[in-house]
Amino acid sequence: MTQEKAEQYSEAMMNLASQARSVVRDLNPKNELKYLRVRAKRHEIMVAFDVQFIVIVIQRWTAAGERSAA
Q1: How does residue 63 score in pLDDT terms, banded at 50, 70 and 90?
Q2: pTM
C-alpha cells in the first residue's frame, strides 16, 4: 500500500471512529467504543482504540463461497 493510500485510510477511519464513539456515548455515557469492524466488498477494516493510539488493520476479504479450493 502506498503512503498516500495509507494516509487516506487513516484519515477516513479516524473520522468514522470519532463519529462512532460519539454515537456510543450518546446512547449510553457509561459505554465506550473499543473496537470497530467494517467489512466492504473487497476489504475488512478493523480499528482498535486506546487512550494514546489507534490501530488500523486492513485486510483483503472474500466470502467463503468465492474462495477457490486449494
Answers
A1: confident
A2: 0.70
